[in-house]
Design a protein that fits this description.
alpha/beta; 41% helix; Rossmann fold; single chain; eight-stranded mixed β-sheet; 291 residues
Length: 291
């Protein structure tokens, strides 16, 4: 009988240990996503005159970017998704450049030199402040806005909530609350799975030193007001991203565009003319000299 009990205890312990190891590896992968560069350049999408520049993160990492001086006095900082390469927003940048906007197309910490640990918005928001400082130091720059996709959208919201120098925000497809996201709180699952998911915030703090509760766009979004905000989500991701809840939590002026028949990403590809019309008009209204 003791042997059976010991075997059962060992089996339970082994399963629990395997589950905890899986959780730890998941968080490690999430905070070390790697840098995925395609090799594309601004010239490949018709952006002429972009300069290869480097600025320093708040904690001393070298962050590369392409900088295009503005024709209208306003620069848009473009923030890519979690893999962090500066070439991740080239097509969006090309459209904004045609409208006269300057661009700072930056990489994230996962592409920095040396490689930085991703904190899914916490330290990246401080990096955004350094990007804004760099952009505002350039000749002819009077206004700065931000356009971010996925994790970049989260960074845009968190950064703008803390930094009033950011005058307008477009956030595409970001998560609404990191704790809820990594514990998969909206999903129906078994008790064991729920227990394992509940350890993710602990492993995140152990890995990064950051409390996931500090990374909550839905709690920070109200602080962007009275600066304008445009949220963009695909129709098939809007519920998971709590798009309407974020919109309701935000202060005025605000807008929400749900792109029909679209999932995560691909907003520009799904509705190119509408994307240009909405995003162009948004930044024109927010950053024009005569507003």
């Amino acid at each position: 009988r003791l042997t059976v009990v010991a075997l059962a205890a060992g089996l339970v312990g082994g399963i629990a240990g395997y589950g905890l190891l899986t959780s730890a590896l998941y968080i490690h992968a999430l905070t070390h996503p790697g840098c995925r560069e395609t090799g594309a350049t601004p010239a490949d999408v018709g952006i002429e005159g972009a300069q290869d520049v480097t600025y320093t993160s708040h904690d001393g990492l070298a962050l590369r970017a392409w900088y295009l001086p503005p024709q209208n006095g306003a620069v848009i900082v473009l923030l890519p998704g979690i893999n962090g390469a500066r070439d991740g927003m080239l097509r969006e940048g090309a459209i904004l450049a045609r409208h006269g906007y300057g661009l700072l197309m930056t990489e994230l910490r996962s592409c920095a030199h040396p490689e930085g640990q991703a904190t899914l918005g916490h330290r990246e928001a401080a990096d955004l402040a350094e990007a804004v400082t760099w952009a505002r130091s350039q000749p002819g720059v009077a206004h700065v806005g931000v356009l971010g996709y996925s994790l970049g959208g989260v960074i845009a919201i968190l950064g703008a909530a803390r930094d009033e120098r950011i005058e307008a925000v477009v956030a595409e497809g970001g998560f609404y609350d990191l704790t809820a996201d990594i514990t998969d709180s909206d999903r129906q699952c078994s008790i064991l799975t729920r227990l394992l998911y509940s350890t993710h915030p602990l492993f995140f703090r152990w890995e990064t030193g950051v409390d996931t509760r500090s990374i909550s766009p839905i709690r920070m979004i109200e602080q962007i007001s009275p600066r304008p905000l445009l949220l963009i989500y695909g129709e098939h991701e809007a519920d998971a991203g709590h798009a309407w809840e974020q919109y309701e939590a935000a202060g005025e002026p605000k807008a929400l565009w749900i792109v029909p028949d679209c999932g995560h990403g691909g907003y520009l590809q799904a509705a190119p003319e509408e994307w240009e019309r909405r995003v162009g008009a948004f930044f024109d209204g927010a950053l024009s000299e005569g507003r």
